[in-house]
Design a protein that fits this description.
By secondary structure, the protein is of the alpha/beta class. About 35% of the residues lie in helices and about 10% in strands. The radius of gyration is 22 Å and the shape is globular. The N terminus and C terminus are likely disordered.
């Protein structure tokens, strides 16, 4: 799955799932974390999209339990086969973390955080089955609650998704108006999950090679292109093991959930208050299943479908279908504003304008930097967030008139981003490949995706390129957990937009059904990925009420959509949340091994 930059580029704090990469950002207009980049060429795979592509669920259903924790001891429950040692390891690691705490001090300059933010580290086992063996350090950031000490409710931990995104910048959002109520009573805590940033970083390819542009992304690839895609995916998978070693096997959702419990203990919290966006909703749900009695409050923003048979191959198929629908939404919008953009009075004519630009870029990339791969990535961002609709339309119109500068500003990768983009993509690949089984035969990938591409050509093959390394993954894989409500789990809050492409709405309903005490807040007729902190006051009020009081709005609640985007009176600026919205996989986009 591929993810969009933080939830809401200009919107909420969420992450998108990305089978294109899953990542989101607070809806403030500033990025929460940079998403993994998609290898220059390619195609990416993304989060669950629609229910149109279905398959019988495999006959697995892991039974996970809830290991006791250091700060809050609870009886050990059943754990998946082979997981008892890891359960004991979490208890051991959490006890140590609770005793040591986290020593917060000035943040390294490389984090580029304001002076009010403090940073520290927490030690976690590389392998929870061997808690006394090798440990790695996860970086943590914090801003203390701004209100009176007597009103403090503890730490609020945030994860923006990815996989592969860092939440280290989350404490910066405490200063935003949209979060002032929660920031008054909670410490805002962010962290970089294992493998990300300075948290024992992993790598699969030389950053300079990974970020090389321009790249190619045909919606109707030739047989030769597909052969090259397979060869690059195989090489990329081998590169992951060569550059990172067998430690790569421990980059997984299960370990992310275990790390979260150790972080909880290190912060001195008996129970965890957590907001997860996009992919963060999945490992938050895994955490809730493993450690139900350690949960205080949880908000899942832009929800991944947690069905064991969906992780991750099926979710990517669904995501491709959902992006096609969202792409159609943008074309209809651009056609309604033909008087401004002159891209065509009908969605079909707008599509023709896009294809004309793609044809030109295939022959001659703009300034040698923007090819069809970068064009695709730029317009995938419009599927993540409405804030990209006007800049995308203006950039396309200007390019067709002979001025490539707005398109280059929107789509070209930034120099200096290569290392973080490559790292994010490596983590994305490791988590998705380690979490679950994937088809090993190319015939299976080709058959299903060729059929899907006839209905949804916009993103299908890019999603394949992003995830195809999993067909050649040289390490083993886990069994996806059967997420469910265990005894002791309090009510949780789910947020979802009906037309979200990165994490299709069906996924939110699927998790809602699995957690009978959960409350689902739906933003009607909206598609921006990530809701909390965005322009929808109805959604924000419900989140504030829940985080401040624990009260949910009932089993279901609905909010009217945010206002539709309006053309800007002049040239539109690229949204602050980044021109390369967290789409793990490309230098700015999808995240698949690049195709020159």
């Amino acid at each position: 799955m591929r993810a969009a930059a933080l939830y809401g580029i200009l919107g909420p704090l969420s992450l998108s799932l990305a089978m294109t990469a899953l990542l989101a950002t607070p809806a403030t207009g500033r990025p929460l974390a940079a998403p993994p980049a998609r290898p220059a060429a390619a195609v990416a795979a993304g989060p669950p999209a629609a229910a149109a592509v279905t398959a019988a669920a495999p006959a697995w259903s892991a039974s996970f339990g809830s290991p006791a924790s250091a700060v809050l001891a609870s009886p050990a429950l059943a754990v998946p086969r082979g997981g008892a040692a890891e359960a004991r390891g979490v208890v051991t690691a959490a006890r140590r973390a609770a005793a040591r705490g986290i020593s917060f001090g000035h943040c390294p300059g490389s984090e580029e955080l304001s002076a009010s933010v403090r940073c520290g580290t927490v030690s976690v086992p590389l392998d929870y089955a061997r808690p006394h063996g090798k440990h790695i350090r996860l970086t943590v950031s914090r801003v203390r609650a701004s209100g009176p000490k007597a009103r403090r409710q503890g730490a609020l931990v945030y994860n923006p998704g990815g996989p592969g995104a860092s939440g280290m910048t989350f404490p910066e959002y405490a200063a935003e108006d949209a979060f002032h109520k929660t920031a008054a009573v909670y410490d805002f805590v962010g962290y970089a999950p294992r493998g990300v940033g300075r948290s024992a970083p992993v790598s699969c390819r030389r950053p300079a090679a990974f970020a090389k542009t321009p790249t190619s992304s045909p919606q109707h690839p030739s047989a030769a292109y597909l052969r090259a895609m397979r060869a690059r995916a195989r090489t990329y998978a081998r590169g992951c093991l060569r550059r990172t070693g067998k430690a790569l096997r421990h980059i997984s959702t299960l370990n992310n959930a275990r790390d979260l419990d150790v972080l909880r203990a290190a912060l001195g919290e008996k129970r965890l208050t957590f907001v997860g966006a996009s992919y963060g909703t999945y490992y938050g749900a895994v955490y809730a299943t493993l450690f139900p009695r350690h949960v205080r409050r949880m908000v899942f923003d832009s929800v991944v479908n947690p069905g064991p048979w969906q992780i991750w191959y099926r979710n990517n198929l669904d995501q491709s279908l959902a992006f096609e629908r969202r792409w159609a939404d943008w074309r209809r919008w651009a056609a309604r504003h033909h008087a401004v953009y002159h891209l065509g009075k009908t969605p079909a004519r707008v599509l023709a304008a896009y294809r004309k630009a793609a044809h030109r870029l295939a022959r001659k990339p703009a300034r040698g930097r923007v090819g069809t791969g970068e064009l695709q990535d730029a317009f995938v961002r419009a599927g993540y967030n409405d804030a990209y609709w006007d800049p995308s339309a203006r950039a396309l119109a200007a390019y067709l008139r002979g001025d490539p500068r707005p398109l280059i500003a929107l789509a070209a990768s930034e120099s200096g981003d290569a290392e973080s983009e490559e790292n994010g993509n490596a983590v994305y690949t490791a988590v998705e490949c380690n979490d679950a089984p994937w088809p090993r035969a190319w015939a299976s990938w080709h058959r299903e995706n060729a059929a899907l591409a006839r209905r949804a050509p916009f993103e299908t093959w890019d999603n394949v390129a992003m995830n195809l390394p999993c067909a050649y993954w040289p390490l083993g894989h886990d069994t996806p957990m059967d997420v469910t409500a265990r005894p002791g789990l309090p009510p949780v809050l789910l947020l979802a937009a009906e037309r979200d492409a990165a994490t299709p709405y069906a996924g939110a309903k699927a998790l809602w059904r699995r957690l009978p005490g959960a409350s689902l807040v739906t933003e009607r007729k909206a598609g921006t990925h990530g809701l909390w902190g965005g322009p929808n006051d109805c959604v924000n009020r419900k989140v504030d009420t829940y985080l401040l009081t624990g009260k949910t709005p009932g089993r279901t609640a609905f909010c009217a959509p945010r206002p539709a985007p309006e053309p800007e009176p002049g040239p539109a600026a690229v949204p602050d949340s980044g021109k390369q919205p967290a789409l793990p996989g490309v230098p700015g986009g999808s995240g698949a091994p690049g195709m020159p």
